[in-house]
Amino acid sequence: MMRTILKNSRARLFVSVAVASTILLTLAGCGAPEPAAGSKGEVNIYSARHYDADEQLYDLFEKNTGIAINRIEMKGDLLLERLKAEGTQSPADVILLVDAGNFWRAETAGLFQSVQSAKLDATVPANMQGPKKDWFGFAKRARVIAYDPVRVKADQVATYAQLAEPAMKGKVCVRPSSNVYNLSLMSSFIADWGVPKAEAWAKGVVANFARPPEGADTDQLKAIAEGKCAVAIVNHYYAVRLQRSEDPVEKAIAAKIALSFPDQAGAGTHVNISGGALAAHAPNKANAVAFLEFLASPEAQKIFAKANDEFPILASAMDDNSELKALAGFKEAQTPMAALGTNQPEAQKVFDRAGWK
What we know:
Elements: E1 3-7, E2 12-16, H1 27-31, E3 42-47, H2 54-65, E4 68-73, H3 76-86, E5 94-98, H4 100-108, E6 112-113, H5 118-123, E7 136-147, E8 172-173, H6 180-193, H7 195-207, H8 217-225, E9 231-235, H9 236-244, H10 248-255, E10 258-260, E11 271-279, H11 285-295, H12 298-308, E12 311-312, H13 322-327, H14 337-342, H15 344-354
Helix pairs in contact: 2-12, 6-7, 6-15, 7-15, 9-10
């Protein structure tokens, strides 16, 4: 069952989504724990991230600032619907999301407000900021091609376009088209190639499916290791996690897989973001901005890199993750992050016409 989580330094309360609607408008008044005595206030974080590494971020922020964190976690779509339902009464201060497509959805729904911060402007690249400076990317994920090096040669997966070629017949595993990672990838193709070429690519990939789309990225990697397919489209960190795992089964999966960062001789590999924004009606605005600035700090960036295998915006933060650092330095596609959102409605139509379920 999906849960929301409220957390500060003293207590944790779990509330099922089935009853979440009963507390939509009461979190600020009585649903959230009171800050610990002597604290410097609080900050309410609504997060669509689901990574254990984030606990380290929260604990370090509380330790460094004395600001207590209250937290709610939900899947992205549910989180955005909750924020819409709460409206001007929302207690949310910071909204954490993954994928530029989700930031676009939230931005168009009026869930953010602009942030004026010299620290953020100096640290976060301009192409990883919202056009109104209302969201900021703090970590990057590359959408790469994983493949079985026994069945597929590296030069056969050097570009995304090659996934649609006849040589890949019966070899491709993917997750469903409705997944935001795939929607953003298609959105980037629409921006760079135009709709006709992007649709032709999608039809070619569909013709090469080894099985109907299913599961998440890790499931695609497992399918390669099990011989169910030979190539898959995944975010890089899923493969790095398997490589760094202490579980023999997961390490065995990683040993059977190689990664291609496509289009290094062309436009570059598709890159997306994980980041945060200041909520439109934040009651603790100063603390919220302090938290966003903290996410851009060297200490927080090291956690993104070491604990969650995401590419940080500060390259030096990768020094403690040798596996991740070994993958760095690839050519990144320069598609504007905003386009990954604005093109999503058309991206879904393209997938639908191509038969990518």
